[in-house]
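User: Can you help me understand a structure? I only have the sequence.
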Amino acid sequence: MRFGYTIVYVPDVAASLAFFESAFGFPRRFLHESGVYGELETGETTLAFAAHELGRANLPAGHVAASESALPLGMEVAFVTPTVEAAHRRALDAGATELAAPVAKPWGQVVSYLRCPDGTLVELCTPVKA
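Assistant: Let's start by predicting it. Here is the structure, written out as tokens:
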């Protein structure tokens, strides 16, 4: 078994793809012609977005929409970069909301937290030094 992809349910797939392209520099792999599903080129594991309507079709009992929650969901998408401060600023300039400015953690990582316009919680961090 391997970790294949993460799908984030969002109100507007094209808008989320455009934001993640602008804020984090991930190129778009594709947006389905229906507009309800799209993917980014993020490395070995795919980051995908699906419309809430697709989420409702897949999960008839419902799901929590991060875009409608006052607080971020209890899960995050983490992006590893050697330049957290610059990446953090770029995301803010693209429209993200700052939840925690970059800070050096006791274990040596620099970490920051942002909330994207679609409600997704993103951690930016330097690599963990083992």
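Now, to help you interpret it: The radius of gyration is 15 Å. Helices lie at 13-24, 52-58, 84-94. Let me know which part you'd like to focus on.
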